[in-house]
Amino acid sequence: MPELTTEAVLNILIDWLRDNIDCGTMLIFDNDEDNTDSATLLPHITQALQDVRDLHHLQLLQRARTD
Asked: How far apart are the C-alpha atoms of 22 and 11, rounded to whole Å?
């Protein structure tokens, strides 16, 4: 089984949220006041994935500078 990296887990979560949206699943992740659903979470998780990728890229650049 491949290693579950942060990127891999975020990709799995993004796919699951998209499936929920596509299927019309009415999951609410917080409370009846805020009604945070898959469509609300998806852009935040997508941004988190991009942030992780950016961090990995910066780490590679830093390592290249110190080598």
From this structure: 16
Structural domain for 37, as ranges: 6-66
Whole-structure pTM over 0.70, yes or no?
yes
**Does residue 67 surpass a pLDDT of 90?**
no
Q: Name the DSSP class of 25.
A: -
Q: Do residues 18 and 42 lie in contact, with contact meaning Cβ atoms separated by under 8 Å?
A: yes
> Is 4 strand, coil or helix?
coil
Contact between residue 44 and residue 50 where contact means Cβ atoms under 8 Å apart: no
Domain count along the chain = 1
What was the pLDDT predicted at 19?
A: 98
Closest to 44 in 3D by CA, of 13, 19, 20: 13
